[in-house]
Amino acid sequence: MTSWKNFLKSYNNYRNIAIFSILAAGGVEILDLGVPYITGQILNILSHQPLDSPLQNLVNYLSSLTSLPNNQVFSLSILLGIICLFTVLRSPIQPWLTDWFHWEIALKVRQNQFKNTVKKILTLPLSFYDENNPGRLVNRIAKGTENQMWTYPEIAGELIPKMIKVFGVFIIILLIDWKIALIFIISFTFILVISFKHLKSIIKKENFLDKHSGNTQSFTSELITNIKTVKAFATELRELDRQEKRFNREFKYTFWKIHKEYVKLITWQKTVIQLSVFFILVYSLVITVQGYISLGHFITLLTISSIAYAELDPITQLAEMFSRRYSSMASFNEFLELPVGKDEEILTPASIKHKPYKFTGKIDFNNVSFAYHENKWVLRDINCLIHPYETVAFVGKSGSGKSTLIKLLLRYFELNEGQILIDEQDINSLNVCQYRKRLAIVHQEVDIFNGTVLDNLTYGNREVSF
């Protein structure tokens, strides 16, 4: 399975701007905590209780600076100004410090991933396509790129900032009463750890479901590709029945094995959260009545602890979405890590600028042996010398290796033994791109690209005259 290191590698070029935007989003979340805190301080003023010393010092300084009377109205005005700064004045700046950069990074990485995907498709050995279904491969790429694009803004723009916000709540509570802070951090950590542990077991089920869904979509792709064969043999009902059985298995597994686990998790989580909030409410009320904390601090404690526990729901939802997407993202990144072999040199600048070859056309198959699978020889000790300007036909029964021999000449596969020489040069020593440009081939099965007839006729040489 792909590691976190492979995921993060895609974002290396945007590391600095990512750190800045994440910290900015975390700072915005911290500012949100200022409103309930200042509201509690306003309540202190209205109930004729003292402000916290940092705020009182600020009010005193501004009063001396402006020469305005330091009374209740002035104190309330200062606190309202702080709330205005934290909310109204922040609003037009926030999207440009956070959302803009989160999505800029996500979309640029998506663009890079698409480029890397096309490069990988063009340079993977032909054997890979013989063993992998095109429909399944397209689904693997599409799901992986889209899920990775949506996941980054959610983690960088929501999950991490929310965790920063929770840490801010802990600090505020700690400054008011360390016992409540201890209760809060223990209960919050307990809920989070158990939730993530539960999600980890669900991820395994999601991975299994993703593979099953991939198979189902692959069969659907085959139906589209082979629709003429299906209709020719009138097997529509049989194919419909096969697909319905797959869809039913997928639904049952999703509903009973996965959806049920999510509901059980949410039920447990909400119950423990409400118990924790209620316990903090009772304890805060007791120490307020006893005079250990002010009425404003009581309101602040109750409000920000409720805010923090409320964040558990979106944090878990984000973790749930990530767990649903993880399998397809990992599968896509594993595709990008596949070895490409010698075909990788096709797209290098050196290959493009390579001097074109000029061959006389002498081809020598020298003790050529090849097997698609180990010890299952398709060709064994083939020797054949073809002189320039000769016309040669390979004749034999189906499966005897005629097409394989031509594929080896085109370097679609690597020889197990022997050599193929052209003008006394081993074809494996030649630049594969420039080498293939000197060959012409008409395939047994003709491939048509979406475009005009002329586009298809001139596909191998765009410079050919009309």
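Second entry:
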Amino acid sequence: MRYVVVGAGAIGGTLGAYMARGGEDVGMVDIAADHVAAINANGLTIRGYAETFSVPVQAFELNALPDNLECVILAVKAPATAAAMDAIAAKLAPEGMVVSAQNGLNELIISRMVGAERTIGCFINFSADYLEPGLIHFAGPGSFYIGELDGRITPRLLALQQAFSHWDGGSVRTTDNIWGYLWGKQGYGAMLFATAVSNATMADAIDRYRAVMIAICREVLAVARAEGVAPLGFDGYEPDLLGGDDPTAINESLDRLIAIRRRDQKTHSGIWRDLAIRKRRTEVDAHFGPILERAAAHGIAVPVLTRMVECIHAIEDGRLQLADANLDQLAALCGGTRYPVS
């Protein structure tokens, strides 16, 4: 099968490079002409936590997307999903499929555009960053699940699992509850977005502002449950414990999560890099706009999530600077508790 990775950045670049090195037929697509040129000239380089390698792979820009696409691995930023799918939908083979290797709930958009039967959900939690044209930093391993939207374990899902198995971040698993992982990650993602409003590392921000992290996670998980989804945990993130009422269990769970973050070579989130380094808008609206809408529809109050989104917007617009004071504002919504819960 021919695989085309659309979005050759942190996630897509890492996956595509490992697949190509493993012998899969892979093409890389990106909107950045300099990235495409660098890949075609020198191959795609992965600077990993365990190894560094370069692999030759064909790359081209989105306007040169080939016809009759069999399997598209969509790895663009969430706000670019609909635009990318406009190009992909016209080129997708009748039996072709799109795998959403993205953060967020983008399977909702993809399935509306090409049908649920041509959409496969994908949950990825490894750490990676685009560094420069032709170079991706693979900073640490993490969970990797794929699943049909209706929960079936199909032959094409098993074939895709095999194609992804060249990835060196751990095993690739199939699941009958991909929505549980996707919604679960939205709770964890809200925590990481909150860490990005200061210059603290992810580990330090989670450690010092535990009440904020618990509150914002619980708000997202409440919406998920109202939508009929049972959120699932992964890689030290335990939504069942964080949503409980045992302070000792909550703090111990956060201790485990913080320990994992401290071991990761990636100290700050991609959201922080967007705000502090790249000076560009984040994915905050694409990730949490639908959740805020569903919260309103269910009558669920989400004050910390709402204020976090507002804070990200203010930083994007230059009205706020990255600072602990922004986290203090979120803490005020949680009774002023900044340090470990009790």
